[in-house]
Amino acid sequence: MSTPLPFPEADAPDDAAREAGRKLFAGQTDFLKGVVAMSGLPPDDRLEVCFAGRSNVGKSSLINALTGRKGLARASNTPGRTQEINYFTTTDGPYLVDLPGYGYANAPLPVVEKWQKLLKSYLSGRATLRRAFVLIDARHGVKDVDEEIMTLLDRSAVTFQAVLTKTDKVKAKDRDRVLKQVREKLSKHPAAYPELVLTSSEKGDGIATLRAIIASLD
Q1: Lowest mean pLDDT: which of 105-114, 191-200, 202-211?
Q2: Gene3D superfamilies annotated for this entry (predicted)?
Q3: Average pLDDT, the chain
Q4: pTM of this structure
């Protein structure tokens, strides 16, 4: 009997779970507000999930693919330009929270420090946050800046799930190597949820799975 892999790929949802995910995101999803301080957070009257990832990982594309709205989340052409925590509402569902991209080198130090402080406050102080999705570029695997956010999530006791993006851009011969590296890195983080989600916003791969996961959280 073979030993199961640590951090296996999440199974495709069954019909009921797929339909629950479809229904959640079939409704209207709207931009609510951009937040630059904890005092600006909306009321914690529902669950929320957040999306974190370094600049250019494909976070905006993934949120747009999830919601079926191409222009909902906008990517900045300048890494690190977006310094707000962006809130989106789903119909009768959780808030979707888009955290600013991290790992940018061109932002002034005071800006970076202010953002890091806000991020730490948000992650440690938001009781309704059910899961963070940490986006990893499938072409590159886990980078040092990804490790930093994962460590922060560990310390904040926030469960996070790794979502690999741009899987359609990875050659088959490189796929196993990248997955091995990601699994090794995740194994060091106690807050890591033990399943990976592999996605391609362009092809639609993994979108139904991620929708079903979000719909199942309570």
Answers
A1: 105-114
A2: P-loop containing nucleotide triphosphate hydrolases
A3: 90
A4: 0.93
> What CA–CA distance (Å, rounded) separates 211 from 214?
5
Q: Pick the residue with more confidence: 103 or 25?
A: 25
How many Å is the Cα radius of gyration of the chain? 16
Pair of tokens at residue 38: 């904890």
Q: Give the integer Cα–Cα distance in Å for 154 and 156.
A: 5
End-to-end CA distance of the chain: give it in Å, rounded.
35
Distance CA 212, CA 169 (A): 24
Distances (CA, A) of 101 to 136, 149, 186, 191: 12, 11, 20, 20
Q: Which domains does the chain have, with CATH numbers?
A: 15-216 (3.40.50.300)
> What is the per-residue pLDDT for 111?
77
Given a contact cutoff of 8 angstroms between Cβ atoms, the answer to whether 54 and 139 are in contact is no
* Contact criterion met (CB below 8 Å) for 102 and 79: no
The candidate with the shortest Cα–Cα distance to 165, out of 48, 56, 12, 82, is: 56
Q: Which residue, 13, 59, 6, 58, is CA-closest to 195?
A: 6
CA–CA separation, 102 vs 90, rounded Å? 25
- Our CA angle for 22, 26, 31, nearest 5°, is 125
